Amino acid sequence: MAEEFYSVQGEGRNAGCPAYFVRLAGCDVRCPFCDSKATWNATKFPLVSINDIADRAADTPSRTVVITGGEPLIHDLGALCGKLRSRGLKIWLETSGSHKLTGSYDWICVSPKTSRPPLDEVLSTANELKVVITDAASFQFAEQCAGKVGAGCELTLQAEWDSRQDVYPLIFDYVLEHPKWRISIQTHKILNIR
Fold first, then answer.
1. pLDDT by 10-residue block (mean), the chain, 194 residues
2. Which end of the chain is more exposed for a tag (fewer CB within 10 A), N or C?
3. Hey, where are the domains in the chain?
């Protein structure tokens, strides 16, 4: 476990919703633009009881938990999801989709990366596809992934934070030409919240 905290979802379809965040340690995707690189080495973090996690999550005003990372699906999340469900909590997953899906979720956001592409079986379960755009070439990868999601999946494009000044105009124009896509903004970074 890298960290747990109560905050507001900062990006994607559920931006602005309060939730309890469970950030798991360990990642083999290792994006150069990652904003949680400290989570990559799981051996630097202690093991935490899933009962304790579920108790702390249930002790917040929100009934929603976001499981994120690192890359959360490098872990088998079945038992954790079971404990969270036993407390009456909704579960949202933030994943690159590069590992087998374990656990059960109310919302799955797949944010695929070219360095370790998503599995087709995970893309097919996505409620939201959130592709980070680093340059004009990123749109082709976004469209490839969009071709593998279900009909009801919401499609969002999000600028890589450090290049956002250059990339948001590209995203804006792309969305106007391809209206199936929406723009996702990292509001938590704008508001300077966790």
1. 94 95 92 77 91 98 96 97 98 98 98 96 98 96 98 96 94 98 90 79
2. C
3. 3-190
